[in-house]
Amino acid sequence: MKANEESTSATASSIDRQNTQSYLLLESQLKSGGLTGLQNLGN
After folding, report:
1. Are 40 and 33 in contact (CB under 8 A)?
2. Which of 12, 26, 33, 42 has the fewest CB atoms below 10 angstroms from its CB?
């Protein structure tokens, strides 16, 4: 049971890291591209 919990939390932190990277990438795209970048993302 304990090993299973550790594995789940490892997966969660891995997903967290991916989300953070995606957010930072998105943020830099928005700063450089402004609203155009946001529209492209929506399409």
Report:
1. yes
2. 42
